[in-house]
Amino acid sequence: MKNKTSRRATLQGLITSAVIIGFDVINRSWVTSALAASASEEFVNLPHLDGVLYTDDAARAAVSNDFGHLVYRLPSSVLKPGSIQDIVRIVKFAQQNNLKVAARGQGHSCYGQAQVEEGVIIDMSTLNKIHELSADRVVVEAGVVWSQLLQATLQQQLTPPVLTDYIELSIGGTLSLGGIGGASHRYGVQVDNVLELQVVTGKGKLETCSPYQNRDLFEAVLAGLGQCGIIVRATIRLIEAFTNARVFILYYDNLDTFTHDQRLLIGDERFNYVEGQVVSNPNGGWRYMLEAASFYTPPNQPDNSTLLASLSYTPGTEEIEDKSYFDFLNRLAETVAFLQSIGVWSNPHPWINLFVPGTAVEQYVGDLVSTLTPADTGNSPILLYPVKTDRFKLPLFRTPNDSIVFLFTILRTAPLDDATVRKMLDDNRRFFEKNRDIGGTRYPVDAIKFSRSDWKQQFRPVWGKLVSAKRRYDPDNLLTPGQGIF
């Protein structure tokens, strides 16, 4: 029995690795046998791969969807690369044979951004190694998730400066978008803390880029939505890590007072982390929750009186808790596990993520939430917190032209009801247009229908820079078609 099992496993491995031998250019289909290859009018051999290219229904179906569960696009194949060179080879092959390509990290976008119909999905999760880790930087492959990186750096008392609220996202994925979090008022977004990249362009070339080498490519890829290259390796800045976090939850009944205090806190940087939410009021309507954290290492302790001085939260509502630094950053793990256990994690997620000008945020948010009920939001979190735009250095990370802007996000979980989902998507578009008309922008991980003219406005005044980079690095328009930009 042992020999049979071993032989079966060996044969299965051979079948899996040899299932695709090439591509039928005329019929636009993968070829899996020598007989089919000989019958093809125009057959091209698949290059050697260290990993595996899959065409089975299960592999393709697994990446035809994303966290939004709103858009379905079935690729013709899925590459699980065994090396960076696999990505170089498959992109070159795709360019030669007019195939679209998209890199997929954790598939956490909401509207098909990392999907491709009848093309090649590159599953980046197999590129998950952490390389050199030194006192001020770390070199990682793009498929590493931030929680994995954080656990490694904390062993050396180091941390990335900025982490997203959910840390089970891939490094390549968030660097393609920006990567915003509660420390962004101090350190910018994650792309502002990248020192160097290795990128596979749409021409199938492996390039190294940084602020000092191939800067044009560096700035086209970071927050570039996958349009000019696939990030395969990143060198990320590290800072000293504390061991603990003292977390303050403060409630407000008045929006103006809430945003005033948020501005105060990011201005004097008394906290390491500042965010906030619009939350349902037990007495009806809405109230506002400020969430802030001060990081420390015992025996040093934060001074609560100093941290809370001059804040105008509702007296008696404050909640103060000490956590480990990692547990604080990993605070969503328990919630996600619960949502997965009750099946809601796989529901549609018509999220909306907007940057609202600081000069108009009270009017915009006040008007909008006055029309909403918890049912309109799917009883989901509404984030609202400020960041300073002088911390943002990359041109394709687009925010309004204000010194302070607010991230306004409705992290909707929709019921399994098409009419409700359509209404939420229509609302997203309406909310976006209202924000756009006052000078706002979008953080494009969400679910908003976007036209080419919308993208031109989003990237103005750097639209020409993006177009030029696209022509230079992806002239055949192969990469990441799901964004719908080109």
UniProtKB/TrEMBL annotation:
Q: Which UniProt keywords apply?
A: FAD, Flavoprotein, Oxidoreductase
Q: Which Pfam families match?
A: Cytokin-bind, FAD_binding_4
The record's InterPro entries line, in alphabetical order, gives: Cytok_DH_C_sf, Cytokinin_DH_FAD/cytokin-bd, FAD-bd_PCMH, FAD-bd_PCMH-like_sf, FAD-bd_PCMH_sub1, FAD-bd_PCMH_sub2, FAD-linked_Oxase-like_C, FAD-linked_Oxidoreductases_BP
**Superkingdom of the organism of origin:** Bacteria
Domain FAD-binding PCMH-type per the UniProt entry, residue ranges: 71-241
List required co-factors.
FAD
Gene3D superfamilies per the UniProt record, alphabetical: 3.30.465.10, FAD-linked oxidases, C-terminal domain, Uridine Diphospho-n-acetylenolpyruvylglucosamine Reductase, domain 2
Family in the record? Belongs to the oxygen-dependent FAD-linked oxidoreductase family.
The name of this protein is FAD-binding protein
Q: From what organism does this protein derive?
A: Scytonema hofmannii FACHB-248
State the organism's lineage: Bacteria, Bacillati, Cyanobacteriota, Cyanophyceae, Nostocales
